[in-house]
Amino acid sequence: MLLPILKYGAPDLKVKAKQTDLFNGELEKIAKNMIETMYSASGVGLAANQVGLDLCITTIDLSAGRDASQLITICNPEIISTEGEQTDEEGCLSIPDFNEIVVRPRKMIVRGQDIHGEEIRIIADNMLARCLSHEIDHLKGILFIDHLSGLKRSMIKNRIKRLAKDGKW
């Protein structure tokens, strides 16, 4: 089932997600719906609060559905360590049509749980590290534009306000 993706300005996007502790069939269903929604929106990552769910869970697939082995669903992700920096363009399903250069860790180790509650550890670099960092930020109520300079962030917010005023947001 497709879930509605919240856009910038929705209060749920700024709320820190609650830790997930119920690992059952309902969580599996939520994860499947999030994955379906992410693929439908041509995204490579989706955090639960982007679809209005107060759960600490995210899905990531850098192949955008072309390679099932790349699909990651992680609950309660925690960054254990980071190394280096990478600077690249980034976008977000909750801020569609806006891309900006963001600095993220080049490498990172993330610990969390799978949808059955089993501990998992991900050693990520490059694009996977970027995506994990982006989605974990979402779960903390942080959006990619929060990493931009005040001027760039203000310009994006003003463009979004104009779009909203015109009924296009």
Q: Can you describe what's shown?
A:
Strands 1-2-3-6-7 form a five-stranded antiparallel beta sheet. It has three helices and seven strands, in the order αβββββββαα. With 169 residues, it is of the alpha+beta class. The protein has one domain: Peptide Deformylase (Alpha-Beta Complex). A hairpin with a 5-residue loop joins strand 6 and strand 7 (119-125).
Q: Got a strand count?
A: 7
Radius of gyration: 16 Å
Largest sheet: 5 strands, antiparallel
Shape: globular
Strand content: 25-35%
- Strand numbers in spatial order across the main sheet: 1-2-3-6-7
Could you give a quick summary of the protein structure above?
This protein is α+β, with helices and mostly antiparallel strands and 169 residues long. Helices cover 27% and strands 25% of the residues. A hairpin with a 5-residue loop joins strand 6 (107-113) and strand 7 (119-125).
Topology summary:
Elements: H1 25-40, E1 45-47, E2 57-60, E3 72-83, E4 86-90, E5 100-104, E6 107-113, E7 119-125, H2 126-139, H3 150-165
Antiparallel strand pairs: 1-2, 2-3, 3-6, 4-5, 6-7
Tag the structure with descriptive keywords.
single chain; 169 residues; alpha+beta; two-stranded antiparallel ribbon; 7 strands; 27% helix
